[in-house]
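Bench log, entry 3. Co-assembly request; chain sequences pasted below exactly as received.
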Amino acid sequence: MGNADYVYPSAAEGGESLHKAAIPPPQPFVKSLKNSLKETFFPDDPLRQFKNQPARRKIVLGLQYFFPVVEWGPRYNPGLLKSDLISGITIASLAIPQGISYAKLANLPPILGLYSSFIPPLIYAMMGSSKDLAVGTVAVASLLMGAMLGADVNAAQNPTLYLHLAFTATFFAGVFQASLGLLRLGFIVDFLSHATIVGFMGGAATVVCLQQLKGILGLTHFTHATDLVSVLRSVFSQIHEWRWQSGVLGCGFLLFLLITKYFSKKKPKFFWISAMAPLTSVILGSLLVFLAHAEKHGVEVEGIAAGRSFAMFKHYNIDGNKEMVAIGTMNMVGSCFSCYLTTGPFSRSAVNYNAGCKTAVSNVVMAIAVMLTLLFLTPLFYYTPIVVLSSIIISAMLGLIDYDAAIHLWKVDKFDFLVCIAAYAGVVFASVEIGLVIAVVISLLRLLLFVARPRTLVLGNLPNSTVYRNVEQYPNADNVPGILILEIDAPIYFANSSYLRERIIRWVDEEEDRIKASGESTLQYVVLDMSAVGNIDTSGISMFEEIKNILTRRGLKMVLANPGAEVMKKLDKGKFIESLGHEWIYLTVAEAVAACNYRLHSCKPNLVTDEKAEPWNNV
Amino acid sequence: MGNADYVYPSAAEGGESLHKAAIPPPQPFVKSLKNSLKETFFPDDPLRQFKNQPARRKIVLGLQYFFPVVEWGPRYNPGLLKSDLISGITIASLAIPQGISYAKLANLPPILGLYSSFIPPLIYAMMGSSKDLAVGTVAVASLLMGAMLGADVNAAQNPTLYLHLAFTATFFAGVFQASLGLLRLGFIVDFLSHATIVGFMGGAATVVCLQQLKGILGLTHFTHATDLVSVLRSVFSQIHEWRWQSGVLGCGFLLFLLITKYFSKKKPKFFWISAMAPLTSVILGSLLVFLAHAEKHGVEVEGIAAGRSFAMFKHYNIDGNKEMVAIGTMNMVGSCFSCYLTTGPFSRSAVNYNAGCKTAVSNVVMAIAVMLTLLFLTPLFYYTPIVVLSSIIISAMLGLIDYDAAIHLWKVDKFDFLVCIAAYAGVVFASVEIGLVIAVVISLLRLLLFVARPRTLVLGNLPNSTVYRNVEQYPNADNVPGILILEIDAPIYFANSSYLRERIIRWVDEEEDRIKASGESTLQYVVLDMSAVGNIDTSGISMFEEIKNILTRRGLKMVLANPGAEVMKKLDKGKFIESLGHEWIYLTVAEAVAACNYRLHSCKPNLVTDEKAEPWNNV
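Structure output for the full assembly:
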């Protein structure tokens, strides 16, 4: 294509751009609708393996799709069993203390925490896709459940009703999850940005820790609210009620748990030490109480299903929607068996992964271990002091406050950091529900702002090339006299078309001011580089018409460069190509600039007055 | 840059890409924050004229900004007055019948409709920017007000309370509008797409027409609901109550109004005929009733502030936020003077424009004409039959049902058409509020879907050039052996990063399947063209890391081409450039492909095993 001085040959010389900016071949509406639906709901094409298969095979594949155990079950061998046995017992040692602690968080009888680590893992082992996910109750969901149910029914006064509500809520949560999965609407969770999740989870973890102050300090009366101010007020207004024995014991166990965690991080080979620590604390604490005839009896207890993260480590794929169906079914069935809300807590799955699990059989092993505990060991837990459970919860929650991620956000994208902090503050200073709503709303607002204020930039010519780039990114790029080259960096929708019109006109105003001040040749052409405009809607097309008219009135000619397939289609249907003239749409910015330069140097006067009369319209 | 066979010189030969894909010079955070805020809230830079002006001038400019009359008032002359007089009287002839009709829609005393065409236009003349906007009550807002207030207070039983509620509602509507304008949040209305507005307005107009069936058929009892089913049921269950005299009279006047409208459209010179028609009908109808001693006494209005559309015709700029402040003030002050919700109806402004108005003084003339009517002519309206008012309303509403726009939407963008129909159906079959909510939600969902499912395309090389374009748009583009070139057509955010990861991996899978089937050389490089990626956030950067790892495990090398300024900044801060290697980021797709070709033809084996050992890393 030569250099920037390329002289554009006229039609008489046989010159014509080698390739015209093409309007793509038309596609029947049904076909493009089918494609759109496929991209929206089936981006990973999960039915690809079903193509060209006999009917019997399709049935088998279908069964395997919903019950993966049908696929990996027959291939199971004793070598895998050995690894799964070890990891299963390891996570069972976590499941038991966490189960009873988190059930306490939800104001439910602690035995439910154990049930919930028995039935649901069995269901998941049949239907789930992740080899590493360890299923059980989570702190944040338990807290949420306790807060929301507690707003309507007092657990102490109406235990049976409360229980039934909890199971019903779990059932419907399961129905909702399974429906989302079946309707392939799992992508909805994509709308929560990572920054939001970090802030929300950190806030929820903080709130859970604050709640444990009741157990650690041995207080009887405590606020029902979860926000920081209420909790601190409740704590510090009862200083005389603090029980130093609880406090000392609690801090002691907490220190023990944190030290084992730190040690396990430094020496990953000894992960099992931090895994065994909670159960050890429970046993120790129960023994202590039993031997000391301590009065406090009874048992007074987040996670993100992280199957995909572990799949990433171990290099296999997880279909998010399929997982949701599995987890939803798990909850629906579980709720019929006195289990409450379960999912796959990250921390427990991390332990499972480190313990070397090979398949979901680790969940089966854990379930069996929990069953044995239920049958033989429950009397032990009558003596477990609350402080131990509180320490276990605090130690688990501290791991969820991901300040490393927050610092990383601050460094890379300060707006994302703001989003994170806002979600955190919403949870800690208001309530978990308000924090969640704030998190979702901020995420969506952020998205809308992205769309509503796309970037526009001025392009300049990199010396000795036909490459045009952003003058801010490449300060050595020169501008071309008489031509203003703008790039629009996003699809053009109703949400940003008004803004774009204002901004483009302002670019033209500023350029004309600059030219007036510097005495350069007057502006005649405005080239719009459409490479980054992925799509355009009817508002966008109207906006282009308006800009064309405004520019025409100012004696300027609008030129388009490199519009994509979708955009060309829409511009064509919207009759804009007719109105602008197909000859003013070029394949590259270089061609557009060359054509304009040719006309500029041919000394043709104001070309917008009567387009039909101008001879070069045949070019 | 030559052709596609360009051999990339090695470092030894002194070859190096002329321009490296550059990381832009760093900008202090405060400066970039200031720029972002300016782009979001002041895209049209309204304070540009204030730069470099002495203090006294700034005060004058400030006064002119809020009270444009200060600017155009001193330049007023008798020539302008003549045009404004004619147009003012014309729109007054519309204002009077429409005012009393629309007040009836809102269940308010008809005289309020006249007050509302008196005070508010005077305020607007002082503060508004549009020369063509004719201010007054609108049918849709009146209907909404009647429906919403009527849900709480019965206008017949509690007229005083109802009245006070109406004024209070108007006052707060004014406060809200003015605040939006002052806080520069006017861009919020951009989030309602044109398709949504067409559907919503069409539905609202249909609902208003349905309501008029009561007046036309002379029914006493009528449903309070507004949806189609309730209204038809109410109408057809009282067939015996229909008064044929009302029906005949109503249809007669309606025919008269529609004929004059049609005639005015065909011969625009006679626009005043259709403008005078409503007032004529009122006078005729009142005379008829008076002479016939008809029993029905008493007196039983939409529009979009279209100042900007007319500004477009007459080539001057309107600052949307400033207009909102003007209209908000108009309502706040008006509510203290027994006026209810007013704005600038499109139909009335169209008449104003056609009548040749020159400045906002046309509003002043209209106000004066209305005042004279109030002082001397109100006894006339006691005799105005409801059927006439109903006909006037129906004839005005039919103009709001923009089926041309709907057909255009069907042709250009079928999804937009669906949005339009959904908003229409929501209003007609449920209620105006539900229809509005549906309209807003669908608009936002459409936006979110745009963002969540960006296009990705395969690029091919146009023969005899270094241009790479979409193979679907340019079927003659060839693909390059061993290299897969993908273009991502939108900014990468949390909302679409999961999808993009799935889709890119799927493109790679499909390409590898195709290669296996056709026996071509194996895939070694995946070039991602980032020209259209305007921005990237932390989720996007994580997604790139994940893709890089997945590709590396499959023996493929990831290469980036033409990342923009923002993207380079973020990739740098997110340490991705370090992790990928800056030498694998090229300025153009052509350079990237040339570099990969060079390596392919140098017959170097699998280069991802140990990058440090490979000699060409110095290139």
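The first strand of chain B starts at residue 456 and ends at 461. Chain B touches chain A through 90 residues (CB under 8 Å).
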